Model the fold of this input.
Amino acid sequence: MGYVGIAEGLRYWMKRMEMPRLIIAGFLVLLYVIAPFVGADFPTQITNTINRFSWNAVLVLAMVPMVHSGCGLNFGLPLGIISGLLGATLSIQFGFTGLLSFVMAIVIATPFSVLFGTGYGTLLNKIKGGEMMIATYVGFSAISFMCMMWLLLPYTSPTMVWGLSGAGLRPTISLEGFYDQVLANFLHIKIGNFEIPTGSLLFFALLAFLMWLFLRTKTGTAMTAVGSNRVFAQAAGINVDRTRTLSVILSTWLGAVGILVYQQGFGFIQLYTAPNNMTLPTVSAILIGGASVNKASIPNVIIGTILFQGMVTMTPTIMNALIHMDISEVVRVIVTQGMILYALTRKPEGGN
Amino acid sequence: MEKQGTPLLQMQNIKKDFFGNQVLTDINFTLGAGEVLGLCGENGAGKSTLMKILFGMDVIRETGGYSGDVLIDGQKVTFNTPFDALAAGIGMVHQEFSLIPGFTAAENIVLNREPVKKTLLSEVFGDRLNTLNYKAIAETSAKAIEKMGVEIDANMRISDMPVGHKQFTEIARELSKDQLKLLILDEPTAVLTEKEAAALLDSIRKMSAQGIAVIFITHRLHEILSVCNKVVVMRDGYVVRDVPAEETSVSDITKWMVGRNVEAPAAAPDKQTASAASAGKAILSIRNLWVDMPGETVRNVTLDVQEGEILGIGGLAGQGKLGIPNGVMGLYDAGGHVEFDGKEIPLNNPKACLDASLAFVSEDRRDVGLLLDESLEWNIAFPAMQVQNKFLKHIGPIALRDEKAIQEVTRKYIDELMIKCTSSQQKARELSGGNQQKVCLAKAFALEPKFLFVSEPTRGIDVGAKALVLDALKKFNRERGVTVVMISSELEELRQTCDRIAIVSGGRIAGILPASESSEEFGMLMVSQVK
Done:
């Protein structure tokens, strides 16, 4: 009897886990098992994974509101990232340093993300059903537009502008003296080679908790219902367009905060086309976590980010040691794009 | 004409069920060459299914086929696809047009059977490179149009044509097939103006004179009488009458169509409510309502609903009965005046209706009525939470879902309505149609409305669930004094449940009768203004 019970339980979990997640989780476990044999230091590997998780988790969290309201995966994440970049660069330009520069970056990024989010949300309301396609191009155009603006905007802070001309921002700006590691260093734990950026994790936990709470409020419930069945929500007296716009603003703002958290961990602000490299891995991460185009939860965010970032950090080390050839990038691209492809093909027929 | 040798078409003991749901039982009739047969019956009587069997539509085979025999010229035939039926000389004009808008009438008429010319290229590379023989196309279509006897411009593009001409193009396409022996017209006059309809009837007579048999399905009964040789009336999957047209009348046919037992008028279930209703004041008054709901246009409805009654709204499909609740509740564009309890209700604003304590159970369970991918708890509690701030608990300034209260109310309705489910957490998608309908009712009940619109509450659910749903409605009306307006295509059901029944025809209220009135009277109202 016990045996049958266990089998049943396993089958249930197999079903809940879904194939792609199982494969990636299996692959990741395999990498960790191999790690000691190829001479990689295990604590360092774990530390890397946790670190990468702490950088990226908020960005992945930024997917959640839009998925809930039925706007699909936020391929327009660059819009949020750009709000964050504006916040970051302006905060430095105004001369803030240390933790204050981080707080001010968030404060300054907020009006931008509300503004961009409103416009972006209004656009998405006009093209219900085709959100993800349009969102992708919104992201592309915003990045291209900002590529010009980073050169043209009258920034003067010597830490950011080109040395010779004194105008235009450099592609990579060091955050040393500003908010490099401000979160990570809070209650930082270090045991030998094993480190935990406690502050970053707590910050993510706080945002995730607020999101969890929000989804349990009346408005949050309405948002989920709008995503689940728009007509039902409308018949229940919900203002569908307004709810969707609100979700887009939330996603955009979280994107802005997400990139700031990423920068404080990474240590640099990356401008110009760099936001391009953030979108697909982020989308892919939440999908690996078990989210679908119209359902996403906080556990999806956490599991997905761990699996995806774990893979990203582990593959170069292990693969290079094993076959002396860098195919980690190839593996990453295959997983990223493959996961998105898989999720999109599984979109329920007709969508919303 | 009737008894010369073997009849063209014989249908013998045709039976068909959809997943155990018997829709056709022992259908027998014959049709001679050149005869016109009028087929009538309420929506859901089985006319379309019967025609699908005759035309070999895929859906029949996919759902397990049928039993009984179809004989053409005395030979037993089995049509596996519409192509087989076409080859055997059966043509069908469907309710929906299947024409290519950018092509001319002539091109549509010969579509896929175009006369072609050989060219040098096609000699070398095969028939796919033949060119079209436009002269032959023009001739073929002109012949077909002449056969039909109605003038339409063969060179006009379909997209430029009025609706009537599109219909004629479809008919001409069938007529252009040389082997055509039997033409099925499925409500061809539904979209025609009076003049066009008259022209169509003429052309049916002409076809019949040329030896083509016609099966003519329509709700306009006088047309049947004017053009058909015989009338077959169907009801609930049975042929209830098969008579020569000259021996019958519109009122006979309507009686046969709607009446299950005309002799015993359905008693109003509860005389007490009926009397209460007659004494009550008008709680909802609708004045000059129009609703732009595709396929259910409401043109000009004026209606008073009395406090505490159950008012039925009946009528044939497409006449606008569904448009009324959808328009009042703000789900489709509407205009006019609606007054509830002495206060004007703004139209096109679902929230305002809900705030005014109106509730609506939509006929479209899957798309409007339910959150299919959410739990029953969500489905039942959601509108009440959003509209009336119920099921929320306040922690400081924030109000969160009160999962416990939600679970309680859901369990209460699961017990009360006997919803079959594994738990209150089960997804709505996983329930059967009847239980889904009960969830929709529970959702409306949880709003504790003063007034409830219920649209097609028994559509697509089995008999047992039907009785439960109707009982729940009656109980809700009686015990809580809620005024209910129930919209249904099944007259019998309305007569069992309602105090008064309004019949909608042509987007207007054709009349309001007490439920005890004879079926015949209702039938007359149903077809009175069919447009």
